[in-house]
Records
---
Amino acid sequence: MAVDRSSAAPERGAAERGLERGLAGHRPAGRWPRGQLHRIGPLVVLGVGVSALVGAAGLALGELTAPGAGLWPFIVALLLTGTGAVLVVVDDPADYEPWTRGTARIAGGLVGLGVFVAAFGAVGFLLPSFLMLLLWLRVFGGERWRWAIGLALAGSVGMYLLFATALGVPFPADVLLIFSRG
Amino acid sequence: MNRLRLWATALILGLLVVSCGQRSSSDPAAYPQNQIRLIVPYVAGGPTDIAARSLGRFMQQRLGQTVVVENEPGASGSTAYKHLISAKPDGYTLSMSALPTAVLNYLINDVGYTRASFAPVGVITQVPSALVVPASSPYPDLAALFADARANPGKVTVATPGSTNTHASETRRATKLYGVPLTVLPFNGNPEVLTALLGGNTVAGFVNVSQDMLPAIESGDLRVLAVGTAARLPYLDAPTFVEQGFPELTQSTTTFGVIAPAGTPEPVIKKLEEVMRAASADPEVVRALDARYVPKQFVGSTELAGLFERTEQTFRGIAGG
Amino acid sequence: MDLLDGISQGFAVALDPINILYVFLGVLIGTVIGVLPGLGPTATIALLLPLTYEIEPSSAVILLAGIYYGSMYGGTITSVLLRLPGEAASVVTTFDGYQMAKQGRAGPALGIAAIGSFAGGILSVIGLILLAPPLAKLAVSFGPPEYVALAGLGILLVTYLGTGSALKSLSMAALGLLLSTVGQDPIAGTTRFTFGQVALYDGLDFVAVAMGLFGVGEILYNLENTEKVRAIKGKIANIWPSGKDLRDSSGAIVRGSVLGFLIGVLPGGGGVVSSLASYALEKRRAKDPSRFGKGAIEGVAGPETANNASSTSAFVPLLTLGIPANVVMALIFGALLIQGITPGPRLIQEHPDVFWGVIASMFIGNLMLLALNIPLVGVFVQILRVRAGILAAFALLITMAGVFSINNDITDMWVVLGFGALGWLMKKTGFEPGPLVLAFVLGPILERAFRQSMLLSGGDLGIFVSRPLSGGIVAAMALIIVFSAVASRRRRRMLGRVTAPVTDTADGDDPAPDPAARAASRGSTSGES
C-alpha cells in the first residue's frame, strides 16, 4: 500500500467544496471538525493495529508451514496498521461529523449503562433495570415523571417475568427477591 | 479495635452470612433438602447432556428433590468448572465432567482450576475411541498406515474433533512414544471430522465411537483400524492398539463423570455415589445412556480421583503439541 | 423408494393434525424468539429438548425445524425496525432494511422479507427433494482449502459492501478479523488477547458484538441528535410492498433462492455467507448500485430469501449424511438421538416417515410463516410509532437481558457496552460496522481452514489452486477484482478525473463518491427525517 493517494485530495476542487457548503444545512447544528481533528479516527485504528502487532508478535509466530498462535493475528494486524496508516493521510474530512454538546449525553448514557451492568451482577435484575429504564425514559427520553416511573416499573417487571420466569434464564440472585424466598 | 465495633462488625457479618446463605441447609446428613443443580459443560443434545438428563431424572426420583440440568458450554468445559468451584461445596451444585479433556484444559492453559478443585463423585459412561479411515482408503490395517507415515512424514493426517482434546493429545503421544509421524488435523467436533473423512480431505480420523459416529462405521463408510481400549469391544469387530503392538495407546477413552466442588462433605459424596451406582444398574437409565457405554463395574469417587491423577501424569508434557 | 411415494407419505405425516399444531407452535415460538435479541434458536431448542422426549420423533423434528426457520424470520423484524440484528444472518438486512424503515417503508420491507423468505423456503425444499443426495456428496467434499477460498471470497465481497470508501471498509474488515482472533487458537489452543479472562476463551460472542455495534451504537448516536427526535412522522405509507416493489424484487428473490440453497448446503456455510453473497450480487447487478445502503428493496429481498433458503438446505447434510451443518442442526441431531434415531445415510430407508415428514412439513411451515407474518407486519410497524425515547430504553434493556441469556455471563453485557461505544464512534467517523461484523464471522473460518490446509499440504500454498473446487473459487475472486478495478477506472475516467493507480489488490476503489451521496448514504442523521 505504498502509493500515496494524497494527490487525490487537492483534486476535490472548488466545485466539491461549494457542494459541501451547500449541504451544510443538512448537518446537525454544531461546529465543523476543526482542521485535522478527523485524523483521530484513523489514528486510533493505527494505534490498535500497532498494539495488536506487538501482542501478536509476543505469541509464537512460527512459520507459514507450521504457524504459531500469533501468525494469523500478526498478518491481520499488519493489514489493519497498513490501512490505518494510509487513512491517516488520505481520509476525507467530510465523513466526519462534528462533536457537539450532545456528546456529553452519550457519555452519560454509557456510564449509566456501565453502572447498570455492574449493579446487575451485584444485586440482580429488578432494581438496576428499573433505575436504568427510569434514567433513560426521564433524562434521555424526556418523558414526564409519571410516565417514566410507570413504564420503568412495567418494563423491569415485565422483562423479569419474560426472561427469568418464562424462559428460565438464571439472573444473578436478586436482592429484592431474597426476602420472598422461604 | 474498639470492642463495641468488633461486636458490631461480627453481628453484621453474621447477619449477612445468614441472609445470603438461606438457600441451603448445611447439615450433610439431611442431604438433600433443596433442589440440586447439575451443570453440563457442553451444549444441549450432546452425549454429556443426554447422560446428564437421564441421570438427573433418576436422581430426582431417588432423592426426592428436583434436579435442574443447566447447560453452560464454553472453553471446553472451563466455564462450567469455574462456576462449579465458585459455588458452595454443599452438594447442591454438581457438574458433569469429561476426562481427559478436563485435565488437558489446565495442562495447556491457566484456566483457574486443577484437579484439586474438584471432589469426584463417580463415572456414568465411558466412550472408547478408534482410529478410522474412509471406506475408500488404501490402508488395510494399522501397520500399513503407520508404515506409510514413517515413509512419508507429513502425509498421514489424523483428523480430530478438537485441537487440544483427548484425541489430538493421544495422537501426539503416539508420535512421541512410537516415532510415527502423524499430523494432527484439528476440527470442531465430530461432524466436521466425519465430513472430512467422507470427503476424502483427511487420511484418517481419531474419534469417539459414540452414537453419532457409529452409523457411519456400521454402514461401512468408515473402517476401524484400531480401538483404543485394553480389550476388544463387543460391539465392534476391530483390533485394539494393544494387540497390534502399541500397548501405551489406551488413554483415549472419554470418561463422563459427575464432580462436585472440593470440600463437599464426605457423607454427601457417599450418598451421591450410591445414587449413581443405583442409576448405572437401573435398566431405564442404562437404556437411555446406551448400554454399550455404561461400565460393567461401577467406577466410584475414589477410582475417579485416581483416574484424574493418572490422566494428569500421562499427558503432562504432551498436551501442548 | 419412489419420490412420489415418499412425498405422499411425507404429507400424510405432515398433515396429521397434531403435526400441524407442532409446526404452528414451532414457527410461532421461532418468530418470537427471533425478535428477542440474544435469545436465538440454539438456546430455545436447548430449552425445549427435554420436552421432545415424550413426542414422536417426526413431530419433534417438525417442531424444532419450525422454530429454526421461524427465528430466521423473527430476526428480520428487529433488524428492519430497530437495526438490531438478532443473528449473523440478519446483519445484512440492516443495511437497507433499516433505511427503508426510516423512510417510512418498514411495511414493504417486512412484507418483501416475508414473501422472499417464503419463496426461498419453498424453492429450497423443492431443491432438497430433488437434489439432496448428489448435493450432499458435493458438500462433503468441500475441504479446508475450499473453505479458505469461500471465506476469502466473503471478505472480498465484504469490502465492496460499504457505501463509503473501500479502504475504510477494508480496515474495518481487518479489525473484525483481528477481533475474531480473541480466544483460543484453533489449532494449538493457546489463548490470545484474552487478558486472563476465561469468559473470553471462546472469543467474543457474535451477538454481543453485533448488538453493540448496530443496536446500541445506533441508540447512543441518536441520543446526540435528539432534539426530541420524533418517531416516523406522518403516515407510515403502505403497509404492503407495492406492485413496483414486487417487480423490482422478483429477480433478487430468484437469485437469492438459488444462492441460499447452494451455500446453505455447505456445513458451516449458512445464513451469513449466503445473505452476504446475495447482497453483493444484487448490488453488482443493479443499474444504480449507489441505491444500496439507502433503502434499496433488492437489498432486503435478496438476502432474506437467501437466508431462509439456506436454513432449509442446512438440513441436507443432516438428513442425508447425518452431519449437522451448524449448532442448531446438532441440537436436532441430539433430539433424534434421544429418541433412538441416529440420522445418517440410512435414515431415508429406516425412518422414511421422519425424513419425508420433515420435508413435507417445511412446506407447511413456510406457508404458515407467511400467513402468520403478513397481518403481523401491520402490528410490528406500529412499534415505530412509539416515541423514540421509550423505544430506545426498552430496546436497550431487552438487548442487555437477551445478551446475558446467551451464556449466562455478565462479560457479554460488557462486550455489548464496549461495542456500543465503538459503534457510535464509528458512526461519527464514517467507518462502517457491516464489514467489521461480517469479517468477524468469517475470520475464524478463514484462519482455521487456512491452517488446516497448510497442515494438509505440508506448507504448499499451491493447494488452493491445484484443487478444482477451491481453484474455481479463487479464479472467481480474481475475476471480481480485475473486473471491478477495470470498471472503477472506467467510471473515474468518465467523471473526468486523473486515473489514480490502483493501490492494492482488494481495493476496487469506489470512485470517490460525491459528498452529497456519502452524507445521505449514512442516512442516520436522523434530524433530517
---
Amino acid sequence: MIETTASPFPAIRLRPWLGIVATALASIATWMALLWAPTDAAQGDVYRVIYVHVPTAWLAYLAFVVVFLASIGWLWTRRPWFDALAVSSAEIGVLFTGLFIVSGSIWAKPTWGVWWTWDPRLVTTAIMFLMYLGYLLLRSLSIDFESRATRAAVLGIIAVVDIPIVHLSVLWMNSLHQLPTVMRIGAAPSLDRTMGMTLGISVIAFTFVYLALLVERMSIERVRQQRVLEGRS
Amino acid sequence: MIDRTLLVALREVFAERRHPDGLVAALTFTGMVVLLESLALGPGRARQPDVASGIFWIAILFSATLVSQRSFDRDLEDDAIDAVLALPGGRDAIYAGKVVALGMITGLVAVAAGVMAILLLSLEIALPLHLVLLLALGIVALAPVIVLVHVLALRVRARVAVVPIIAFPMLTPQLVAATQGTAAAISGDATAALGWAGLLAAFALVYTVLGVTIVPAAIE
C-alpha cells in the first residue's frame, strides 16, 4: 500500500535558506577560485577549471548514490517521497555529469591538445551519463505510478555499480587522465594547501547548490505525485 | 528455487525449439557479421586478435539481445506471461530461468559463430581452454543484465528501443573484459586472459545476485 498524501519533509521548510546559502557560498568559491588561489606552476591559469570539474564530478557521484539510496527506500517502504527524491537527484545528477564531461573537455584541450580522447575515465563517465539518461527515459515511458517507481528503483540500484568503475578506471587501466588527487584511497589529497582549501569551499558550495536544486525539484515532484495519487483514489 | 529455475529455463528452451525464430535470427546475424568482417576490414585486419574478438563480442551482445527480445515477445503474445507469473513460488525463479535459458541459447550461437570465425578467418588460437573459459564467462556476464533490462522494459512504450539504450551502456565493462580476454587467449597471454576472466566472473556474480534479489519486485 502506498501513501496518497504528500507529507512535508524538513528540508522543504529550509528551501529559501538553502538557496541563500548556496548563492553566498558559490560567490565566495568563485572569488577564491579566480582571485585567491595561486596560479599553477605547470599549467598556469588553465588549471582553475579544477574548481568546477572536481565539484561536478563529486556531485555526479553524490547524486547517483542518492538515487541508489532513495531507490532502496522506495522498494523497502513504498513511500512516494523516496521516488521523488530518486527522480530529482537523477535529473540533477545527469546535469552535473554533463557539466563534468564538458568542464573536463575544456580542460583537456589546452593540456592534452584534444577535446576528447578514448581514455577509460572519459569513456566510463560518458557511459554513466548514458545510463542515467536511460534511467530517465525508462521513467518517462512507464505510465503507471507504482510500476514506474519500482522499475526505476531497480535500475537505480543496479546502475550504481558503475560509479566505482568510473572512479577507479584510472587505476585499473592505462589512462591519460591523472590519478585521483582528492579522493585517494588510504592517502591524503596531493594538492597545495591554498588550492586544497579553494577546492574544498567549491565542493561545499556546489553541494549546497545541489541541495537547493534537489529541494526545489522535489517540491515540484511531490505536487505532481499528489495529483497522480489523488486522481487514482 | 533451483527446480523452478530449471523448469522456466526448459520451458524457454522448448519454446525456442518449437519456434526457433530468435535462434535463427541470432545465428544469421552473427554469421553475417563474421562474413562481412573480412570484407569490410580486409582479411589481414580482421584476423588481428583484438579486432576479431571485439567484433565477435559485439555480435554476441546483439544476438543475445535479439534472443531475449524474442523470448519476451513470445511471453507477451496472447498474455502468455500471465501463465508464467502464475507459477508457484517466487518470481526470482522466472528471472533466473530466463537468464539460464538465454545463456544456453547464446552459448549455442557463440559456439557456432566462434567455429565459423576460426575457420573463415584462419585464426590460430594459442590458448583454446582459456578461450572456452572466457566464452562461457562472457555469456554468463552478459545474460543477467540483458534479461534484467528486458524485465524493466516489459510493457513499456517503445520497449525495443529502450532495451539497448539501457542495457548496452551497462554492459560496456563486460564487453571490454570479454574482448580483451579473448584477444589475450588468441595471442597466448595466459595471465591477461585469466585476469579478464576473473573480472567477467565478478560481473556475472554481482549482476546475478542483484538480479535475483531485486528484479522480482519489477516483474508484473
---
Amino acid sequence: MRVAVIRFPGSNCDLDMMTALRTIKGIEPDLVWHEDASLGGRDYGAVILPGGFAFADRLRAGVIAANSPAMARVKRLADRGVPVLGVCNGFQILVESGLLPGALLRNSTLKFVCEWTHVRVENTRTPFTSGLRQGQVLSMPIAHGEGRFFLQRAELERLEKDGLVAFRYCDASGKPTAGSNPTGTLHNIAGVCNKAGNVVGLMPHPERAAEALLSPLGRPDGALVLSSILRKSGGGRRA
Amino acid sequence: MAFFTTKGRTFEVSVVISNKPGVREPEGETILHDLVAKSGFEQVESIRAGKYLRVRVVAPDPASAKRLVEKMCNDLRIFNPAAHSCEVSIGRVPGR
C-alpha cells in the first residue's frame, strides 16, 4: 500500500514517520510537500499527517496548515473513505480542517508535556485500530502543549454515544484515571475518529513507539497502530 | 479578490478571540492566581486571556470593513467555533 506522509513547514516527525512506516512490510511511504495540491498525482491508499509545529503554531496549532493546497486534496480523499491519520500536530490540523470535531486547547497545566503514556483502545472499527483489541492498553509517548481535547457538553456526549473516541489515556491497568490524564483533556480523550471511521487523530506518537528498542517497556505498540491499515477489515468506507 | 474593494478609506478593525464561557482558560487563571491575587489586587475576580488581531482594511464605510473582517474570520477559521468566541469591532481610523 502506498501511503502519503504530508510535510508542512515546521513538521518534525515526518522522517520518523517515514522510517516507522518503512519497517512495516507492505507499506511504501512517500513524503509529499504541502503545496502539492495533487499529492504527486499518485493514488494513495492512506494519508498521514505527522507531528511537528506546522507554520510555527502561529495563530493556533494546525489552523494555517489546514488551509494548505494538499489539505484540500486530503479532504476530498477523506470524503471518499480513504484512511487519514493525524498524529499530534497532524491531529490538530485535522481538527482545524473540520475533518474531526472539537478543539485542541492549551494543556491545563500550560506546560509542554513530553512523557510516555498509556492509552486504551476504545474503537476498533477504524483503519488504524482494526489490528488492535477493544480495551487493549498501548504505551506511546506524547509531546505537545496544545492537546486538551474540548467539545461543548452536548456534543461531547454525542461523540461518546456514537463511539467516536478512538483512544483514551489510562493507567497501566487500563483505567482512565485523573492521574493518567496528562493535559486536562476532557474524558481522558487521546484520539477521536470521524463518523465514517476513516479519519483518525491522536496526540500520542505511534512512530516514536514503533520499535521495541524505542520503548521503555520494550513494546513496539506504535507499529500495531500503523500496520492496522493493511488489514482489509479496517472499516473506513461510508455505508 | 471579489469581496475585496480597493476603493474607500482605511479602517482599523479589532478581532478578539477568547475561550467561550465555561471553557477553562489556564493562562488567565495563572495570571490571576500566581501574579495578580498575590500582589495586593484581591478585588480582581477573574482574568481570561485571549488573542488579539488588529486588522487594517480598505472599505467604503465602517460597516463594510467590519463585515469583511467577520467574513475573513469565518471563512479562514481564524477562531475554532467549538471552543472560541470571536468579537469583531471597529477601532480607530488611522490618520493618513
